[in-house]
Each structure stands twice: as C-alpha cells, then as structure tokens.
Specification:
This protein has 207 residues and is α+β, with helices and mostly antiparallel strands. The protein is built from 2 helices and 10 strands. The strands form 2 sheets. Strands 2, 4, 5, 8, 9 and 10 form a 6-stranded mixed beta sheet that branches. Strand 6 and strand 7 form a beta hairpin.
Length: 207
C-alpha cells in the first residue's frame, strides 16, 4: 500500500522544482528580450537629419543663384534636395545639392534670366538611410529669394595716353618753336638789340 504522505511530499517537491525551472526559463527569456530590444534600439535610425540653411534674402536676375545648407545626421545621410520654382509657377523643380569635400555643407546653383526677375520660391529636404526626412520650408509655404533687375555695367572711357615717341616729338617741336621765335625777335631791320637781349619764355611739357 502506497504511503499517501510520502506521495504527497514527492508531488510537492516535484512541483517546486518545476516552478523553479519555469521561473528560471521565464527570467532567461525576459532578459534576452530586453537585451535584444536594447541592441535594436541602439542600431535603429530614428533621428531625422538636421538642416541649417544659409538664407540669402535677394539677388540679381541674370546672375547664378547659389543655395547652401549645412546638413548633419547621426547615421548615414542619403540625399539633400533643393526644390525650387519661380513665383507664379505651380510645379517645383528638384535639384540635388552636392556635398563640398568632407564638410557638412551642401550647395546647388540655379541659373536665372536677366529678363525675368520673378522671385525664387524654394525649400530643402534631407533624408537619411533610415527613411527619416527633414524639411526647411514647405511646398505650401516656401522660402523666398527676391530677384531684382540687374544693374547695367558702366565701363569708364579710357584716358588717352601719349606714347613716348609722341612725347619726344612734342619736345622737339617746342625746341624748334623757341628757335623761330628767337630769330624773329632779333631779325627786325635797323634793330640794335641782339637776339639774346630779347627775353622769350616758352614752357615745353612732353607729358
């Protein structure tokens, strides 16, 4: 005949061991999930790029308009795009902004028509490898760069210059004029003064 007391003790001990094993297993699974979650959170790209736009208020129509921005990201930056249009146009044109060397500065250049001084409406979008996007300006509320009519370029007239050859020619003519005047001063009939007695003041400036 089976001793009920011994059987009960055996079942109790078995249940205790089972509960301990289950508790250990649950604890191990929980710790593993926490570690995996932490590693996933560390490797996940959840932060969007940061854009610091160099805003220029105005420019001249007919000149190339340069747009630049400093863009940084904690992971991998995929693209920086400048969307732009002229005032009155509906569609935006997309232009990739190029990175300058190893810096965080990105630039794009837009050519303008001197006969069209409509303002440029634009915004900048940056995207990283995690699909996170940042915007400066919006399609429905763009930034604006005013275009003014270009000022005409006035080239001053060149000042006439006298060559060295012409300077010596003028000097020779001046000397000749001195001789003629001196001879006329002393060649009158019946005169008693010698040519050297008549003062003649002539200034020759060969420039």
């Amino acid at each position: 005949m089976i001793d009920q007391h011994s059987l009960l003790n055996s079942l109790t001990v078995g249940l205790m061991h089972l509960r301990h094993a289950l508790t250990s297993a649950l604890l191990t699974i929980t710790l593993s999930l926490l570690v995996l979650g932490s590693l996933h959170a560390q490797s996940a790209d959840i932060d969007a790029p940061i854009i610091a736009l160099d805003e220029v208020a105005s420019g001249f129509a007919g000149e190339a308009q340069v747009f630049s921005a400093k863009v940084s990201d904690d992971k991998t930056l995929v693209s920086v795009i400048l969307y732009h249009r002229l005032t009155g146009d509906e569609a935006y044109l997309a232009q990739k902004m190029e990175k300058i060397g190893s810096t965080d500065v990105f630039t794009a250049t837009i050519e303008t028509d001197s006969g069209d001084n409509r303002n440029i409406e634009y915004y900048v979008q940056a995207e990283d490898a995690g699909g996170n996007k940042s915007l400066t300006g919006f399609a429905f509320d763009p930034l604006v760069r005013e275009l003014r009519a270009g000022n005409p370029i006035i080239v001053p007239a060149a000042t006439p210059r006298v060559s060295n050859r012409n300077r010596w020619l003028l000097a020779a003519l001046g000397v000749l004029a001195v001789g003629v005047l001196a001879s006329q001063a002393g060649g009158g009939s019946g005169g008693t003064q010698s040519p050297q007695d008549v003062p003649v003041n002539i200034t020759v400036n060969p420039l």
